[in-house]
Amino acid sequence: xxxxxxxxxxxxxxxxxxxxxxxxxxxxxxxxxxxxxxxxxxxxxxxxxxxxxxxxxxxxxxxxxxxxxxxxxxxxxxxxxxxxxxxxxxxxxxxxxxxxxxxxxxxxxxxxxxxxxxxxxxxxxxxxxxxxxxxxxxxxxxxxxxxxxxxxxxxxxxxxxxxxxxxxxxxxxxxxxxxxxxxxxxxxxxxxxxxxxxxxxxxxxxxxxxxxxxxxxxxxxxxxxxxxxxxxxxxxxxxxxxxxxxxxxxxxxxxxxxxxxxxxxxxxxxxxxxxxxxxxxxxxxxxxxxxxxxxxxxxxxxxxxxxxxxxxxxxxxxxxxxxxxxxxxxxxxxxxxxxxxxxxxxxxxxxxxxxxxxxxxxxxxxxxxxxxxxxxxxxxxxxxxxxxxxxxxxxxxxxxxxxxxxxxxxxxxxxxxxxxxxxxxxxxxxxxxxxxxxxxxx
Length: 442
Description:
CATH class of the largest domain: Alpha Beta
CATH topology of the largest domain: TIM Barrel
CATH architecture of the largest domain: Alpha-Beta Barrel
Distance between the termini: 23 Å
Shape: globular
Number of strands: 17
CATH superfamily of the largest domain: Metal-dependent hydrolases
Organism: Spirosoma arboris
Function: Catalyzes the reversible cyclization of carbamoyl aspartate to dihydroorotate.
Keywords: Hydrolase, Metal-binding, Zinc
InterPro entries: Allantoinase (IPR017593), Amidohydro-rel (IPR006680), DHOase/Allantoinase_Hydrolase (IPR050138), Dihydroorotase_CS (IPR002195), Metal-dep_hydrolase_composite (IPR011059), Metal_Hydrolase (IPR032466)
Order of helices and strands: EEEEEHEHEEHEHEHHEHEHHEHHEEEE
Subunit structure: Homotetramer.
Strand order of the largest sheet: 3-2-1-4-14-15-16-17
Strand content: 15-25%
Radius of gyration: 21 Å
């Protein structure tokens, strides 16, 4: 393979944005230099003032295959990924069928990727009541960590765990140094919302911050007791920021993500019946979400992940507008970068912040920080070229997801992905797929 050099004025390195030439060889970044070596004989691409950044890593994606490929699937999800500059995904153990809670189910998952893996993909195993004996088998098979719910997951074949279940599993997971990802809501039997099912405020009140706060308090306590890497997924309650900050100050192995939709939308702007906005935990009020931005900016929240959770349009109850019956999940995989950048640039954040939140920190969660998430010598040449100043409007035609239901339709976003590279191969360029099936299992 011919060596490749990418020359640009805005190369996003660990030391910041600078002019540089990035030399790619055998799927890796072989060097980052100020000038092209005189003996270089490969191809040179000049990207001018576009940004070269490590590929986006999304460790919170529901691809739903096998078993629910009519919801999404590896082909459409990973096409959407490279179109959006995502070079590595980590697939959640649900909502596929079977769920990834046993070795046999994991084998089925791996087999389903054949011939339709267009970006790199790793996998989380599932933690459910009664599968403690499967943990080490799944680790040997290659899962990167485990995901658990503390409330109903939305599907009956992935039941939530209790504190008792966690006490059995966390010592095992801790022994292997892997992360436990937790959906933190401790629900009550009390009916907290009994009003109009089309009312967004009614839905919002049905999943209060207190559910999250109680769950996070419990996970901080167990994290400290077992010294188990604990990761809180899709934080939406700003009430929990202070306890999380205290836990981190104590040195606990605790990390936190939030999702793009909690940073881009606010409850005040969601109209009744707009079930495309339904997710769990729910999108909260502006004051709350402003606090999430502050926590992201100061590092209390580590990074941002989409929680891409698509479903067929009929399950989103678009006709009835019934928030209580609609599937809770937002489709946004392809839009991870421009959604976050559009909101971040308005708040004075920079491209280097984006690289940290979408590339470097997610790589650390997935145990990939020694090879992915940075433009540095010896790292995988998974890269994207994008224009932060160029804008576009989301249309159904522009989305590669299997279903086009998303609250981002018709939004004007900044940040156009021009090129995506996997292991130094160009796979996507200016709206066109250059090479498919170039993804690798992680």
